[in-house]
Amino acid sequence: DLGLPLQPRQPRLLVHAGRPVHSARQATHRMQATRRPRAGTLGANPPGAAKPDTQEPYLEPVVRVARAQPDFAGVWLSYLAPMGNNVAEDPGEFVLNVAFTGQLARHQAQLRPRWGGRLCVTRQQRSYRQLVRIQRALQGEAGRDLGLRVLGTGIRESANAVTLEVVVLEERAREALEARYGAGAVQATAVLSPVA
């Protein structure tokens, strides 16, 4: 297990060169039209890059290097087309998304020789280490201080957020989470809704 979250197959908004891409066909067309990929854009295979492969062991070197960076923020796959019937032999076309809090050009130059497939190096607000600190705090004293009965937490790397599941989430607790950790840092859901 590489700790690489596989996002469910559902329509999602992709961004290429700062503009929304509304379909896999449009994304493919824009990628093929890109001559020189820049940080934060989808890039094609440059000459001399490692040959892409669709199996996880080939993702491991690039994921390991990315996760070792102090400003690493997340890694996830975005599928451009549905997977075939035999996932082991045909996992489908995908983009390897790797996020950092800064220095995108340096990170892309570091990752590109290790991954010859589609690569998107993008910026996110919080580092993965910050997300882990938030997650641990919510599981411990911070969660108790906010009066939360925490059922579970996780890290959603593609959203650059900590997921939080609680028994009940009142509006004042939601506001306190946002005030403490920032807008969008915690995606909280409750099993029960308070009755007025």
Structural notes for this entry:
A hairpin with a 2-residue loop joins strand 1 and strand 2 (19-21). The protein has a four-stranded mixed beta sheet. It has a three-stranded mixed beta sheet with strand order 7-8-9. It has a two-stranded antiparallel ribbon with strand order 1-2. It contains six helices and nine strands; from the N terminus they run ββαβαββαβααββαβ. Mean pLDDT is 77; it is low at 6-55. 30% of the residues lie in helices and 26% in strands. It has helices spanning 24-33, 56-67, 104-111, 128-139, 141-145, 171-181; strands at residues 14-16, 19-21, 42-43, 72-79, 94-100, 119-123, 150-156, 161-168, 186-192.
Q: Which structural traits does this protein have?
A:
196 residues, alpha/beta, 3-stranded mixed beta sheet, 9 strands, 30% helix, elongated
- The count of DSSP E runs of length 2 or more, i.e. the number of strands, is 9
Q: Mean pLDDT score, rounded? A: 77
Radius of gyration: 19 Å
Ranges with pLDDT <50 over ≥5 residues?
A: 6-55
Number of helices: 6
Name the beta content range.
Answer: 25-35%
N-to-C terminal Cα separation, in Å?
45 Å
Strand order of the largest sheet: 3-6-5-4
The shape is: elongated
Helix/strand class: alpha/beta
- How are helices and strands ordered from N to C? EEHEHEEHEHHEEHE
